[in-house]
């Protein structure tokens, strides 16, 4: 249920962004593109979380640790 709730919230966020009447269409598209990349599976929050979970109770390299942190950090 928690996974479905997360899926629903992320989907709803994209719906809300797509329908912002006060933001020009091009800007809306760029906002959605940036957020989807930050949340995405490769070099994004989801990908970092997957590697984090798969690495639990295992020794990991500095490279893997940096990937996890880089992927899950807040983008600016």
Characteristic terms for this protein:
76 residues, mainly alpha, 4 helices, elongated
Structural account:
The protein has 76 residues and is an all-alpha fold. The protein has helices at 2-18, 25-39, 45-54, 62-72. It has one domain. Helix content is 70%, strand content 0%. It is elongated. The chain starts with a helix and ends with a helix. The model has no long low-confidence stretch (mean pLDDT 89).
How are the SSEs placed, and which strands pair?
Layout: H1 2-18, H2 25-39, H3 45-54, H4 62-72
Helix pairs in contact: 3-4
Report the radius of gyration as a whole number of Å. Answer: 15 Å
Distance between the termini: 31 Å
| Backbone structural class | mainly alpha
Outline, from the CA principal axes?
elongated
